[in-house]
Design goal:
alpha/beta; six-stranded mixed beta sheet
């Protein structure tokens, strides 16, 4: 492929369109840069296009369309992106020497990954066992995390004012502090409306390219100022995993010295392509899929669908996007293949039955339920994915299902990392212990 990452951008663009269709129509942006109209409630629609520059190239871009109210059975429509006039609606690039440009920064005053992550183990017999979150006093390795598409900003790229970015980093990344120091940069991610956005006139770069440039800058700053030769594990979800895929292919996979620093890369919720029946090739030429918990310098990759709701034709997760290679899949708790339990961590509301949590006197914000979930990497037509089964038992006191469904084509994309968070952390601990520079 002339552009080996066009498939990543294609997948994420389709994903953003699917989110819009699920959430309701968003406001359009008029071509003269005026404000987009409000979205209709609950009905599908596509993102507004950017307005063209005003006369003389000096007029400001239009303001964003307001969000539609929620319709019956649907979510509120998303506001349209503002028209891009002669003055670009793009925040300045982050300054990664500033603590405010990091959601998680070891030693930082507002390190989200340093918060209380104690959990409760809710067993099938109804017993609840406290699980303190224990961080090593002197972790030997680092983890570098990039969050998924989560911004509610209605510009083509997010600003640097934190919102949902904090919550998703807390649930997807902070628990990794059981194994490593976690670095999580703020970046001007492409918004839902920005994936298909046009290039900015001043730079010629698309919103997705702007976002990747920030991730690359954060990684470079981390290497120069924080790494000091320490092993590092890369992990991210959805858009974040897409940016890390490009970062690894362009900056790490072909550089033996940089590759020697990598414990592993956990690229969740966007397909990493490999030749059929092989563990290396396709996107990465030197970093294979992980097949043992003590293997390092390797890749973990999967997308999750329920056993009773496999990916339908047209889904863009777990698919052979280029028509030649296959999407990788390896269960982080059973890398060699076959079925195995999944060890999830959710906030209490994530299992969809708060009344049962209250009856069980679960006091912590986070909970895990041994034996409730099982997963296996399976193949169905053009799809390779992590199939999830809920081992529901109406006779026990625990909830019988989880939340996280969005549309059939998305599967359980929203909780790709939640459902295997314990497995990912345990694997990180094992790989870090086995790592030899």
């Amino acid at each position: 492929m002339s552009d080996p990452f066009s498939f990543v951008r294609l997948i994420l663009a389709f994903a953003s369109a699917s989110v819009l269709a699920a959430c309701g129509s968003d406001g359009s942006s008029t071509n003269d840069g005026s404000a987009g109209t409000p979205g209709n409630a609950g009905s599908p629609g596509t993102g507004g296009t950017a307005g063209s520059a005003g006369t003389g190239g000096t007029s400001a871009g239009g303001s964003a369309g307001t969000a539609g109210s929620a319709g019956a059975g649907g979510l509120g429509g998303l506001g349209g992106t503002g028209g891009m006039g002669g003055t670009e609606m793009l925040a300045p690039a982050p300054d990664y020497s500033d603590e405010a440009s990091w959601i998680c920064l070891p030693g930082g005053a507002d390190d989200v990954c340093d918060e209380n992550l104690d959990a409760s183990i809710f067993n099938a017999d109804g017993t609840v066992v406290p699980e303190p979150h224990v961080r090593p006093a002197n972790p030997t390795s680092d983890c570098f995390y990039v969050y998924p598409t989560i911004t509610e900003d209605t510009t083509l790229n997010s600003d640097l004012v934190l919102g949902n970015e904090v919550g998703v980093t807390r649930i997807q990344a902070a628990r990794m502090t059981r194994a490593c120091r976690v670095f999580a940069p703020v970046y001007r991610q492409a918004s839902i409306g920005g994936f298909a956005g046009p290039p900015y006139p001043s730079s010629g770069k698309t919103p997705f390219e702007i976002a990747y440039d920030d991730v690359l800058a954060a990684w470079s700053y981390y290497l120069q100022n924080h790494n000091q030769g320490r092993p590092v594990l890369l992990f991210g979800h959805s858009q974040g995993a897409g940016h890390l895929t490009q970062l690894i292919a362009e900056e790490i996979d072909g550089d033996a010295a940089k590759r020697a620093l990598i414990v592993s890369a956990m690229l969740i919720g966007v397909p990493v392509l490999v030749p059929d029946g092989q563990d290396v090739g396709g996107v990465f030429q030197n970093m294979p899929l992980c097949r043992a918990a003590t293997e390092t310098g390797c890749i973990v990759n999967y997308s999750v669908f329920r056993d009773r709701a496999p990916p339908p034709t047209g889904s863009i997760f777990g698919t052979d996007v280029d028509g030649v290679n296959r999407a990788a899949c390896n269960h982080p708790g059973q890398l060699a293949g076959g079925p195995a339990p999944l060890n999830p961590y959710f906030s209490k509301g994530g299992f969809g039955n708060l009344s049962m949590m209250a009856q069980a006197n679960i006091a912590t914000e986070y909970v895990t339920m041994p034996g409730l979930l099982q997963g296996e990497c399976v193949r169905l037509n053009e799809f390779d994915y992590l199939e999830l089964r809920v081992n529901a038992d109406p006779s026990d006191p625990r909830p019988d299902d989880i939340t996280g469904d969005l549309t059939p084509a998305f599967g359980l994309h929203l909780v790709d990392m939640h459902v295997a968070m314990g497995d990912l952390v345990t694997l990180a601990e094992s790989q870090i212990a086995a790592f030899v520079p």
